[in-house]
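#structure-requests
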Amino acid sequence: MFYKKSSANLVFLQKNAKISVEMKSETTYSAILGRILAQERKKAGMDQAKIAGKTGINRSTWSRMENGEVTPDALQLNKIANALGTTPEKFITEANDAQKHLERKKISVRMVNERPDKSSNKVGAFLIGAALGALITALATAKDSSETPPEDE
């Protein structure tokens, strides 16, 4: 497995297969994985409609996966691997290798498909929601225990 630069693209070459990733200062793990899925689908001689049919994944969802807009979940990745005669680990290994290479080239790889300035808002909202959930649970537990009459001994 090796990499080379070519004009405006970074080309990932592996066993005569190419994965192009646009040269930007950042990308997402989903975009890397999407390129790998597209490469494997094409190598198997399938169009998007055929692979979507074999996996039970909606064709528009498949297209969004290849474009890096959504990331397949574990079940979807397993169905894709089965349809392509490989394992989910192969996709993950190739994506991890590409991520490491990009990071060595000073290209940031985000793990989610959101703008970095918005992610902190979502994390904050999640933490507030978790704290409120814990508070409500604690209050409900305290209320339930105060309403329970003491047991006779």
